[in-house]
Task: structure prediction
Amino acid sequence: MEFIAIMMVGAILNGLLASARGRSVAGWALFGAFFPLISLLILVLLKNPKAEAEKAAAVAAANADYMRRVEEHRAAVELQQSEKTCPRCAETVKKAALVCRFCGHEFAPAGRA
Ligand SMILES: [Zn+2]
Result:
């Protein structure tokens, strides 16, 4: 009778811990009924698959966000590099332009901004 009570306690404890750690409740309860201490120890040492998946998803989202920001920055730099500011009217014109399309200012030949 005592033996059965110990088995039930082992099964319940391991089932609860398995549930909390995202593992099969029935399987770990059965294992815990026969080897309660070993089962508890293994459950504590095993990684939580749910938490691991959440961690991986968070890392993937952070990576995607970072790559998006890098791409935005690259596009902004590219735009900036393809333009220059007119010294006379302060408008932004294409870098290759020889004449400002806003005020008619003539830029020095290529090589100087
Ligand atoms: Zn101008």
Residues 86, 88-89, 91, 100, 102-103, 105 surround zinc ion (CB under 6 Å). The helical segments are 2-20, 25-34, 36-45, 49-81.
